[in-house]
């Protein structure tokens, strides 16, 4: 094949070669540029690193400089401190030197002192040994005689108790105290129906001594001279609740000695009966001591009773409380509960058992262990008590409230047992005289009249019959076995009041008439006892029938007359003071009666 290469082909080949060269050159250029860029990047990196290192170096230099400064400051402070420590060290060494010398001196002195003490004690032992022995013997003798004195004191206390009861008996079984209350704001409110002049709030009744009340005749507006009334104790307007209770307190000792005790507040409406018996809430100061001070006879007597019981052997006495009201001549048991279990006063009957004891049928008794429990029981039912505002007193009680604490003793003291024997004997005499011994009892126990066991258990009037009293007890009951019961009756009577003064009408008028009738029945009973009439009309009202055990006989009755001091209530005050005087005649007669009995014996 002919080898013919034309120019175009050569040219094309050269172009191709050149293009190839160019391409490889361009690729090389690209490579070099890439390398250059990488080198630039590395350079920038190295420069950055160099800058950072430089900055760190500067920072480190600064830090180093700071440290050096701080070191310089610390060094100068340390130098200063060192010099101060040196100075303190110097001082301490001086003080220590003083202390060492003082301690040495002290040790020396205490050694000397000990030596002296030893000297003194050895000389005491040698010289006073006998005297000390004598003294020890003397002390032992004194201790013995102290024991003897204590024994005598115990016997004396027992004798004092007996004397106390003798004294109480000699004073009479009915005592009358009187409390004249202060003039109160409501005394200045003029009653439109009283007809009294502007001076009606003027004071006319004064407690002039511990036992005398004076009614200023001139000021009363009545044609009368000054009148004096004497009672066992008279309290003036300034006398506190405590002072009033102090005079009542001895009766509680008699209670545990086997006597029934009754304390009743008598007086016109608004004269302070509830204040005296229950107490009042303090108006401003509600501190505990103020509240205590305002408590009346009922809470204070409950507290004193439990105090006295706490001195007896544990569990020897139990106490039950019952609360009744006599309203419109009916007796209501305020502790009774209705079918729903709510407190609702229920009517009860008062009966005289065949042995002459007074019983209230189905009466509720609540066992109590402290004075506060007694007050809780009473407070829970006080709202049931009938009240009605009158012109004289906006919160007037319209019923007689009777709180009874029945005390059962498993181990009565000797005095109480003697009392029981005495009272049983009296019952036997009475039953022999009056032939009122229950035929039912005689049938059941023909030897009843002669059995002293039977007599103790069937004592009618005092000590009080038990709530579950049996008129025909088992002959096995003995003086020690039969439960020994006494009762404390605390009575807040409803206030006596003139119809005109009270300003009431309708049902309230009927209430007032019932109150006045029952109070007049009480006055009749006291009068009959004073005159020693053979018949005492206890049954003329439910009130006197209910209280029969506590009025007359051996029971101790204290009538607290509450009297308003103002002219406005002078008629009622004179009436109350008159009743008190009449009641006192009972006790005046009592000792004479006992002396006569003794003479006859
Ligand atoms: N001695 C007293 N000291 C201070 N306030 C008394 C005194 N006596 C009674 N009061 C006050 O007189 C007001 C009437 O007294 P209280 O309620 O005791 O009369 P009351 O005789 O029971 O009357 P009522 O028979 O109408 O129920 C009460 O506000 C009471 O606080």
From TrEMBL:
Coiled-coil regions listed in the entry = 15-67, 132-166
Region entry Disordered, spans = 581-601
Q: Where is ATP bound in this sequence?
A: 267-274
- GO cellular component term of the entry, any: microtubule cytoskeleton
Q: Where in the cell does this protein reside?
A: Cytoplasm, Cytoskeleton
One BP annotation, GO: microtubule-based movement
Instruction: Give the UniProt keywords, A-Z.
Output: ATP-binding, Coiled coil, Cytoplasm, Cytoskeleton, Motor protein, Nucleotide-binding
Q: Which Pfam families match?
A: Kinesin
Identify a single GO molecular function assigned to this protein.
microtubule motor activity
Q: Name the domain of life.
A: Eukaryota
Family stated for the protein in its record: Belongs to the TRAFAC class myosin-kinesin ATPase superfamily. Kinesin family.
Q: What is this protein called?
A: Kinesin family member 25
Source organism per entry reads: Seriola lalandi dorsalis
């Amino acid at each position: 094949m002919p080898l013919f290469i034309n120019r175009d082909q050569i040219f094309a080949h050269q172009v191709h070669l050149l293009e190839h060269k160019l391409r490889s050159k361009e690729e090389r250029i690209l490579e070099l540029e890439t390398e250059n860029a990488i080198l630039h990047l590395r350079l920038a990196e190295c420069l950055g690193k160099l800058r950072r290192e430089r900055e760190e170096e500067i920072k480190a230099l600064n830090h180093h400089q700071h440290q050096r400064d701080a070191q310089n400051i610390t060094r100068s402070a340390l130098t200063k401190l060192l010099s101060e420590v040196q100075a303190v060290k110097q001082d301490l060494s001086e003080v220590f030197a003083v202390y060492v010398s003082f301690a040495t001196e002290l040790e020396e002195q205490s050694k000397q002192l000990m030596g002296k003490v030893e000297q003194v004690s050895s000389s005491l032992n040698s010289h006073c040994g006998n005297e000390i022995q004598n003294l020890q013997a003397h002390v032992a003798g004194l201790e013995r005689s102290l024991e003897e004195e204590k024994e005598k004191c115990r016997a004396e206390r027992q004798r004092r108790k007996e004397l106390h009861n003798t004294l109480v008996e000699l004073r009479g079984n009915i005592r009358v105290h009187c409390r004249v209350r202060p003039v109160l704001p409501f005394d200045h409110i003029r009653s439109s129906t009283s007809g009294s002049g502007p001076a009606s709030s003027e004071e006319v009744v004064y407690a002039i001594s511990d036992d005398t009340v004076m009614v200023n005749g001139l000021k009363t507006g009545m044609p009368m001279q000054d009148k004096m009334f004497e009672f066992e104790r008279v309290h003036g307007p300034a006398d506190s609740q405590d002072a009033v209770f102090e005079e009542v307190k001895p009766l509680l000792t008699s209670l545990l000695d086997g006597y029934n005790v009754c304390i009743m507040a008598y007086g016109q409406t608004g004269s302070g009966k509830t204040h005296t018996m229950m107490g009042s809430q303090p108006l401003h100061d509600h501190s505990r001591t103020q509240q205590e001070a305002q408590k009346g006879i009922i809470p204070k007597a409950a507290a004193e009773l439990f105090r006295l019981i706490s001195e007896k052997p544990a569990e020897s006495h139990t106490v039950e409380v019952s609360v009744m009201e006599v309203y419109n001549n009916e007796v209501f048991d305020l502790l009774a509960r209705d079918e729903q279990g709510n407190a609702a006063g229920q009517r009860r009957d008062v009966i005289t058992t065949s042995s002459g004891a007074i019983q209230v049928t189905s009466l509720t008794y609540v066992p109590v262990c402290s004075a506060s429990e007694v007050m809780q029981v009473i407070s829970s039912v006080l709202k049931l008590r009938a009240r009605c505002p009158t012109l004289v007193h906006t919160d007037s009680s319209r019923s007689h409230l009777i709180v009874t604490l029945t005390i059962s003793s498993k181990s009565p003291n000797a005095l109480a047992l003697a009392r029981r024997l005495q009272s049983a004997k009296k019952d036997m005499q009475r039953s022999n005289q009056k032939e009122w011994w229950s035929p039912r009892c005689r049938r059941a126990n023909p030897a009843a009249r002669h059995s002293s066991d039977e007599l103790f258990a069937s004592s009618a009037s005092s000590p009080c019959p038990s709530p579950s009293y049996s008129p025909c007890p088992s002959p096995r009951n003995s003086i020690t076995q039969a439960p020994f019961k006494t009762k404390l009756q605390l009575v807040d009577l409803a206030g006596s009041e003139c119809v005109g003064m009270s300003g009431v009408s309708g049902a309230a008028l009927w209430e007032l008439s019932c109150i006045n009738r029952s109070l007049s029945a009480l006055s009749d009973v006291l009068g009959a006892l004073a005159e020693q009439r053979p018949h005492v009309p206890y049954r003329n009202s439910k009130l006197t029938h209910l209280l029969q055990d506590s009025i007359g006989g051996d029971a101790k009755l204290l009538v607290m007359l509450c009297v308003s001091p103002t002219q406005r209530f002078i008629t009622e005050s004179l009436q109350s003071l008159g009743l008190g005087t009449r009641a006192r005649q009972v006790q005046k007669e009592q000792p004479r009666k006992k002396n006569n009995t003794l003479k006859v014996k």
